[in-house]
Amino acid sequence: MSDIETLKAEIKKLSTQAVQAKMDLHDLSEELPTNWQAIPEVAKKCFDLHARLDEARKSLKSLVP
Question: Which domains does the chain have, with CATH numbers?
Fold first, then answer.
């Protein structure tokens, strides 16, 4: 598999994970004030996944002419 195809597969995987993290954060917000202690952990996971997805997209853009 080429680097571009590998990166596209990674982006697809990260995109799915980022959407799930976004939904987890949304669900947590709807349940507030219950489980408010989980906000930093859930928000960090969401932030980290979206940052990784953004970097992967930038890497792909730099590989594709």
Answer: 3-60 (1.10.287.660)
